[in-house]
Structure formats: structure tokens, C-alpha cells
Amino acid sequence: MTEPTAKAPARQAPPQINWRFALAILVVASILPFMFKNFVVFQITMVMVYAIAIIGLNLLTGFNGQFSLGHAAFYAIGAYTAAILMDKFDLGYVWTLPVAGLVSFVFGYLFGLPALRLDGIYLALATFGLSVATPQLLKLSPFEHWTGGVQGIVLMKPDAPFGLPLSSDQWLYFFTLGAGAFLTWCAVNLVRSRTGRAMMAIRDNPIAARALGVDAAHYKAVTFGVSAMYTGVAGALGAIVIAFVAPDSFTLILSVSLLVGLVVGGVGWIPGAIFGALFVSFVPNIAESLSKGLSGAFYGAILLVVIYLAPMGVAGLFKAAAARLQSKKA
Amino acid sequence: MELFVQQVVAGLATGSIYACMALALVMIYQAIEHLNFAQGEMAMFSTFICWQLMQWGVPFWGAFVLTIAFAFAAGVFIERVILKPLHNAPVLSHVVTFIALYVIINSVAGFIWDFTVKPFPTPFGTAPLFGSNLIGAHQAGTIAVTLVMLAFLFVFFRYTRIGLAMRAAAANPTSAKLVGIRVGWMTALGWGMAAAIGSVAGMLIAPVVFLEPNMMLSILVYAFAGAVLGGLTSPGGAVLGGLIVGVVENLAGTFIPVIGGELKLTIALVIIVAVLVWKPSGLFGRSIVVRV
């Protein structure tokens, strides 16, 4: 354990990834798809998709202090928007992303309005209800013409454009990487902006923030919208990459996974999303390989160990390492 | 009209199950201010213990008492061993710990007793009560047991020293510590009691939904809704909330055309959220005034 309260500045300023580091990661990320089989490339692509969704949740929970167990709903809205646009309207898959983002933003904003009245555990219940309702709504018979009911919608995997010598998995990897890098850049800038400071002020002390003239209701609803937009775009990317959507992929389990990813990566630290996404994508498989019958128990045990060793997630580990480096220098 | 009355009574019968579980949730909330997602799984595991004891030839009420004792001990153990070291961790880490407990207990139960559905006996019999076909003896028994537990809890918190100490520890841990209350153990006691109440709920639910590792999932959703609706600070409110949820669910399923049947759960949740928007601390909860 580190001594958490002793270093006040370390608490407010989580380590930021500077642009050189980001560039190095991008370079490594561009080499990766040429070193692995298509299936592994597909898996890494899904890790990035989850990372984008977790960034969305982080904006809401980590930076605005609102709790959500309902992000599977926004993921589903994004995924279905993209799938229906491609399936029924023959829209190019690239253009489904902004539309999915916009639709999710509107839904998130509208959901955020009544949620303004709810705090903590009550908001958890409301969003929990949203998660439970989503698969049921998607299966509902009046919508079946659009949603395909229980069967869902099967899509075509897009090929690489401009005659690039890439398999479609590799191309989708780069497509997702580009979208993810852009969205991460936007999120980092959003958090550093005036809006971001208002979001964090509401999280840290809502009454003081209001006294300073921050329009809490406006920022909370907008944050809900932006958070839903990120998760919705992730959903659309997920639908394109998997080339299939069905109601039972968007249950409470997805919401819980996103939450686990958020906590493992570190609440209120944007780069943590990638670590959280790695955890939720691969640890269930590791648990499965340890024991078929007890995979759930192993998953839970690994999760407990992670929480014990790093109660603040990977962000906390980085912070502790940075603090140690600094004290060595001094 | 007769259909309406019938559905309300049937709703009360299912609602009594939710009420029982909601009571357990509120107990833990009183002690630690978090909702325990693993509560349902703890109840399910205890119910399996009861079933196993009966398989070994222990009579029902003997197994019943032994199971409550086991659940109490297990609740205290979980708090002492797993949650106490995380005392200072952020709230979300606690939530994730509950999720971890949930999957562990579920998976272990499935491993020991497998996922086949098992019948569970009822101590009250299945005959309809007083010859009417509105409510069965088991449902009436469930409501009675829930009310007895509620009365017991009321007396415990209101008139015993240890109940008072637990309330003090929950309301103001620092001051409670200064007057000599062992706050840590009070929390553990709260966990034990909640687990014990949960095990009673599990044993009353199992004859209705049958025993299997996933039996508590949907019930926990309803109980959660009932507890929040009634107000998390009020055990009586939680029981009433559970009953209301049962009735609303049943009426929505019967009287709302087309979507009613498919979306029973969703409609119940929407109504509850609507109530919360209007009364944010639940129907019977105290609104908590925060000092700035």
C-alpha cells in the first residue's frame, strides 16, 4: 500500500499521457495487426470498442460523479442505429457512426433530464431499470420489422477500401483505431476545458459549484448525453466489427462489464479505459481456461485480487509508480 | 372487478416474496449505506444449504434454524474477511466487490449442486387458504413470516442496547466510536442479520420459483425496486414497497394490452422511477439533510 493522503497534489492530478507517449502507442498499435492472426486482430478491435464505451462511462461517472448501470442501453441504441441504417437504408458504414452518436446523444440527454432528480443509489436503480428494459424493448413485436426481433440483424463485414492490401479484420482494426484515437483526443480536451472543469466541480461539491454559477442541471444532462454518445459510437463500431446485432448481447451483463472495466482501469483517468477493456475482454477467457465449471468463481476471485492490490484501479498503480520515480529523483 | 381483486391479491402474494428480500437489502443498507448486489446469491446459497441438510435427513424446521445460523455466520465472515480490508476504498470499488462476490457464489453453487431445477418443500402446505382460491397457504405464510421479522426488527432496533448501538454506528461512526461502540463489529453484525433475513427469504421463495443457482436474479431486481420505492431508511417502507411492486407488476401484466405481458418488469420499473422523480427518497424514507 502507498500512503494515499500524504501527497495532496498527486491526488488532483492523475498522470497524463503526453503526446510523445501517445504517438509511441499509435506506432505500436499500427504494427500489431500484421503480427497476429485475424481472430486476434478482431479481439483487439473489440478491446478498443469497449475502451471507447468505457471512456463514455468514465466521462459520466469519473468526471461528473453520476452512477450508471444502464450504459448497455446506449451501446444497444448505437449498435441498432448503425445496423438498421446499413440493413434498411444501405447507408455506408462510415456514416452510421455520426448518426449513431447523435441518436445516442439525444437519448442520453433526454434520460439525463429526469435523472437530474436522482442521486447515487436512486440513479443506480433508474439506470439499472434501463438495462433490464433494453433487451425486452428490442424484442418487442411492434418493432420487429426494424429490429429483427429475437433473431437480430445480420450485416456484411466491409472490405478495405481503395484496394488496400488488408483483410477486412485488419481494415476494421485501423478504422476502429482511428475513431478511438479521435474520440480519446476529444475526451481529453473536453475534460481540460471550461466544461470539463464545471463537470468536475459538480462531482466534487455540487452546492459550491452551483454557488459559483455553474448551471448544474445543464451540465449534468449534457454530460449524460455526451457519455451516451461515446458509448453509442462504440456500439455502432461493435455492430460493424461483429457484423451482427441481437437483443441478448445488450443485457445488464454488458453494463456491469463496462462498470468493472471502468473501476479496473481507474475512475476519472481516461487512458485507464484501455486497461479496463483488456480486463473485461480477456479475463473471462482466462478464468474459463482455468476451470470450466468454476470459471465464474475464478473470474470473481481475480476481480477481488485486482481490487485488493489496486483499489484505485490501474490509475492508482501508475500514480504510485510516478510518485516513487519522483521521490527517487528528489 | 373480480378479476381486479384476484390480481391484486395474487400481486400481494408475489409481493410478499419481494418484501422479504427488500427487508434484507434495507438491513445491509442501514449498516453500510450500499446496496449489496450479492444479497440474492447469498440467500440462494443458504437455501441450498437448507436443501442439503434436508437431503441428509434433518427435518424442515431443524434445517431452517441451522440455515439461519449458517447464513448469519457467513454474513459476518464475508464482512470481516472480504470487505473490512476495503474499508477506505472508493464506493465503486465496493460495488465491483459485490459483483465479484455475486459471480463467485453463483458459480460455486452451480459447481456443487449443478444447475438442474430442484423442488423445495413448503412448511405451510399448498392448500388454498380457508377454501378460497385467492391466496394459497404458502403465500399467506410468507406474508406472516415477513411481518413477524419486521416486528422483530422493530423491537430489536427500538428497545435493545445492541440495536441502539447499531443505529449509532450507522448514523455517526466517529461519535459512536468515541462513546465506546465497536463500530466494525456493528457493521459485521448488520451483515450477519441481513444474510439471515435473506436466507429466510430464500427458503420462502424456493417453493415458488424452485431451487437453482439463478433463482434470485429477477427477484433481486424487484426487491431492489421495492426497497428503493419504500425508502431505503425504512424497513417498514421496504416491506410495503415490495408489496406495491408485486401488485403493480401483476396489474400491468393483466390490464395493459399488447405490451403488458412482454414488458411487465419494464413497466413496473418505469412506474417506480416516476415515483422516485416525484419523491426522491422513496415513499417512506426520511429525506437526508446534508451539512455543507
Q: Which class do the helix and strand fractions of chain A yield?
A: mainly alpha
Written as H for each helix and E for each strand, in order along the chain, the element string of chain B is HHHHHHHHHHHH
Low-confidence region ranges of chain A: 1-13
Number of helices of chain B: 12
Biggest sheet overview of chain B: none
Oligomer: heterodimer
Q: Please tell me what the overall shape of chain A is.
A: globular
Mean pLDDT, all residues of chain A? 83
**Count the helices of chain A. How many?**
15
Give a description of the structure.
The complex is a heterodimer of chains A (330) and B (292). Chain A has 330 residues and is mostly helical. Chain A has a domain at 25-250. Chain A contains 15 helices and two strands. Chain B has a domain at 2-17 and 34-217. Chain B is 74% helix and 0% strand. Chain B contains twelve helices and no strands. In chain B, helix 1 (2-32) packs parallel to helix 5. The radius of gyration of chain B is 19 Å and the shape is globular. Classes of the chains: A mainly alpha (330), B mainly alpha (292). The A-B interface holds A 4, 61, 67, 114, 117-119, 121-122, 124-126, 128-129, 132-133, 136-137, 139-142, 207, 256, 259-260, 262-264, 267, 293-297, 299-301, 303-304, 307-308, 311-312 and B 29, 34-35, 82, 85-86, 88-90, 92-93, 95-97, 99-104, 106-108, 110-111, 221, 224-225, 228, 232, 258-259, 262-263, 265-266, 269-270, 272-273, 276-277, 280-281, 292.
